[in-house]
Amino acid sequence: MKLGILSRSIRCYSTRRLREAAIQRGHQVKVLDTLKFAIDLKPAEPDLFFRGRHLSHYDAVLPRIGASITQFGTAVVRQFEQMDIFTTNSSAGISNSRDKLRSLQILSRHQIGIPETTFVRDKRDVLPAIERVGGSPVIIKLLEGTQGIGVLLAESVKAAEAIVELLQSQKQNVLIQKFVAESKGKDIRAFVVGDQVVGAMRRVAQGQEFRSNVHRGGVTEPVDLPDDYREAAVRTTQIMGLRVAGVDMLEGKDGPQIMEVNSSPGLEGIEHCTQLDIAGSIIDYIAAQVDFPEIDLRQRLTVSRGYGVAEIHIPEGSEFVNKTVQSSGLREKDINALTLYRGSTVIPNPRSDRELMAGDRLLCFGKLELMRGLIPKKTRRIRKPKVLHLPDLPVAHEAMTSDPEESSS
Long-range pairs for 347-356 at CB < 8 Å and ≥24 separation? Predict the structure, then answer.
């Protein structure tokens, strides 16, 4: 296997360990400076140049995209995706994980534990927002930040209000998050590779510091995660579109609470703490996946005219309740069930004898016209809305009577 590691820091521990692990296993590996790429776009021929020369063939790419170069870095990863080269993390997954608000929004749609969080811009909304997350103390976070930077603890409502007002005056967007008291000063970092947690450690803050990050002086200890924590970490990375990630969790009284997901997690801390070959597990996973790369289903499936992907909900009283996938008649209607969601359980490629229950959700691919009648009315969308003429209304009337050149001047 020929592997490219996208990294600007060839001397950092993580990059050196990944390169070392690949060489140990007999693979060809090269560290590629992410900012030295040029992206060429031509019809049906996406291409890349590196240091002014045409990029040679690679079987897989392992992105280590720093926060400061997220936009260009994800563009490079996206180009590799268009060239059908396996990447451990998708460009969309990297972008989503960098924005704390966006990542929590994505997770909030699923049965994944997250701390109650609110996002406000108007000063008058700050106090109601704090009340909605349970009152003081609260955690205040910048939308983008790593290693505990931009994470503050406000002990009182007045302090929280002042901090938010100060940060907003500096054009900073902030999240207000419930303070999980039972986990004060500690969290768990689960390192996920593929569909398993390959290592985990508990980080514990020292002294008066509430942030447990190692860069803030926190100490680490290896931990054997319970099944619910392992499942939460793996499902989180799958939802985010990541295959290699560090998932930070709080130990809440109701189970794991996902704080954030790191798409370029450092290896030094987790390997030092657990004494496990995490770098080697990443390389082994990549080698196993090279022959079976995942593709962007949205890109592939939506190009067929009249076909697409839809989620069919099976409510109480539905004709499909207590029927098997085969007897439901979906396949006769040219509709294929790709995945069955039942509560927090995900059942890929459900068997034909799988019995459907009330509350199930089926992710299906098939003829859109046939699936339209199976989707509840409130979730239906007009696929091809007709564009109407401007209505005879006051504001629209301005567009019909005014001179466009005068309006734009």
Answer: 350/325, 351/325, 352/324, 352/325, 352/326, 353/324, 353/325, 353/326, 354/324, 354/325, 355/322, 355/323, 355/324, 356/314, 356/320, 356/321, 356/322, 356/323, 356/324, 356/325, 356/328
Backbone angles phi, psi at 24, to 5 degrees: -60, -30
Q: Which residues of 62-77 are buried (b: 16+ CB within 10 A; e: fewer)?
A: bbbbeeeebeebbebb
- Residue 39: closest CA among 55, 23, 26: 55
Q: Rounded to whole angstroms, how far apart are CA atoms 50 and 39?
A: 9
pLDDT tens track for 91-119: 999 999 988 889 999 999 888 999 889 88
User: DSSP secondary structure string, 116-143?
Assistant: -EEE--SGGGHHHHHHHTTSSSEEEEES
Contact of 296 with 81, CB cutoff 8 Å = yes
Cα dihedral sign, 268-271-275-280: negative
CA distance 280 to 2: 15
CB-based burial label for 245 (10 Å; 0-12, 13-18, 19+): buried
Taking the C-alpha atoms of residue 359 and residue 313, their distance in angstroms, rounded to an integer, is 7
Q: What is the chain's mean pLDDT, rounded? A: 85
Mean pLDDT along residues 26-35: 97
What average pLDDT score do residues 229-236 get?
95
Detail the DSSP E strand segments found in 225-358.
Answer: 244-252, 255-262, 307-313, 335-342, 345-348
Structural contact between residues 243 and 264, judged by C-beta atoms closer than 8 angstroms: no
